[in-house]
Amino acid sequence: EVQLVESGGGLVQAGGSLRLSCAASGFTFENYAIGWFRRAPGKEREGVSCINNSDGETYYADSVKGRFTISSDNAKNTVYLQMNNLKPEDTAIYYCAADTVDGPLIATARATGIVLDLDYNYWGQGTQVTVSS
104 Cβ partners below 8 Å, 6+ apart? Predict the structure, then answer.
């Protein structure tokens, strides 16, 4: 059974940091890319960052470049999202999703730099991040 489990969310003041984790199981980790997405109150879900677990290439939405860092630990089948200098507009539920490394997540990011939000097959349950001003 494929599972993605996010953790690490919480309440933080503006300027603070959080590290989210996405623990994966049930599939061959290196054959997949993991994306982080978020849904803010009253807004549509958007792509934040993604990583290709086969070669480590990474991509970021413009709104988080320079503040967020995505990384993976293939030995632990876990992807992390280090979020620094958080802003109130980062408040959202954060989700991770998995797509094959030859699927549209990495292909679109590689071609356009956009972290494409699609209905990928595998999603976590989400973790709440709240940034107070």
Answer: 116, 118
Contact yes or no for 82/71 (Cβ under 8 A): yes
For the chain (133 residues), the mean pLDDT of every run of 10, in chain order, is 97 98 97 98 97 97 98 97 98 98 96 96 97 97
Beta bridge partner(s), residue 50: 35, 59
Give the other-Cβ count within 10 Å of 118's Cβ.
14
- Region of 9 (left: φ > 0; alpha: ψ -120 to 50; beta: rest) is beta
Contact 86, 18 (CB under 8 A): yes
- Which three-class secondary structure state does DSSP give residue 101? coil
Question: Which three-class secondary structure state does DSSP give residue 61?
Answer: coil
* Residue 10 phi, psi dihedral angles, 5° rounding: 165, -170
